[in-house]
Design goal:
295 residues; alpha/beta; Rossmann fold; 2 domains; 12 helices; globular; disordered C terminus; Vitamin_B12-ABC_binding
């Protein structure tokens, strides 16, 4: 089977199923496992490489209004690699190639490939995507083994969290300029890790929030997981928050419980490493495994 993945998360799932050698094309953002970077990139970003967070937000909002894509598909490369299976998504309009462009590329192929559209909205959906790919690729047994391992790790975090009485008010911030609350699976991860997400809503899209709402929520723990940004890139935007009214008075700031994490590799990539994200959250929300810390 010849597989093209149009999602970094799907690329990770395909590799977790032992199908690395079946991958013939990936996105320009696929970077894990590391050797997938050697594969032909079938997409490219139309965002300026030096765009600020505010400029990226403006471009994304314009995309929503005009239906102009932020990613383009290299149809010639798709034709060269001749995939049997294309894995894409229809969940987020700005996170991947437009569905219409994928369909247009398929029409140029002599043999139409199977297309899997993944649309996870919560942790269970993410795990189910792995199962769906396993069925499509004939690797159901391996999918079940991987799922069992992931579910055991989730259960271990939940078991630990259930023993802790105090559930810190927590906010996962998915963008800084402007502020975006956590969406989809991230509020759920907070709950499983033993916290209470004070702004984001599980299963819903990430949305812009007024800064004063963050101040009013006064989280005890703030986790900054900017979508598409690694830790170093997110740190560049931290001064924007530090200049915001009320920043110094936040409980999380006073208690030095503001954490910057890799939102690109983990929290906003709905693949196997979402379980790593859960484990990271658990260690940040409850660094004392005995749960003896006082609120």
């Amino acid at each position: 089977m010849r597989i093209v993945s149009l999602l970094p998360s799907a690329t990770e799932m395909v590799c977790a199923l032992g199908l690395r050698q079946s991958l013939v094309g990936v996105t320009h953002e696929c970077d894990f496992p590391a050797d997938v970077r050697k594969l032909p990139a079938v997409t490219r970003s139309l965002l300026p490489a030096d765009a600020s967070s505010s400029e990226i937000d403006t471009l994304v909002r314009e995309q929503v209004q005009t239906s102009n894509a932020l990613y383009s598909l290299d149809t010639e490369t798709i034709q060269d690699v001749q995939p049997d299976l294309i894995i894409t998504q229809a969940l987020c309009d700005v996170c991947a190639v437009a569905e219409s462009e994928v369909n247009a590329a398929i029409r140029t192929l002599p043999k139409p490939p199977q297309v899997l559209n993944l649309e996870p909205r919560n942790l269970a959906d993410v795990l189910d995507c792995l199962r769906v790919i396993g069925i499509a690729t004939g690797t159901e047994l391996q999918a079940n083994r991987v799922l069992s391992q992931l579910e055991n790790r989730i259960a271990a975090v939940v078991q630990r969290s259930e023993k802790i009485q105090h559930k810190p008010r927590t906010m996962v911030l998915e963008w800084i300029d402007p502020p975006f609350s956590a969406g989809h699976w991230n509020p759920e991860l907070v709950e499983l890790a033993g916290g209470v997400e004070v702004v984001g809503v599980a299963g819903q899209r990430s949305v812009t929030v007024e800064w004063k709402k963050v101040v009013e929520a006064d989280p005890e723990v703030l986790v900054i997981a900017c979508c598409g940004f690694d830790i170093e890139r997110s740190k560049e935007d931290l001064p924007i928050l530090q200049r915001s009214a009320g920043w110094q008075n936040l409980r999380c700031v006073k208690d030095q419980r503001v954490h910057i994490v890799d939102g690109s590799s983990y929290f906003n990539r709905p693949g196997p490493r979402l379980v790593d994200s859960l484990e990271i959250l658990a260690s940040l929300i409850h660094p004392d495994p005995t749960g003896s810390s006082k609120p």
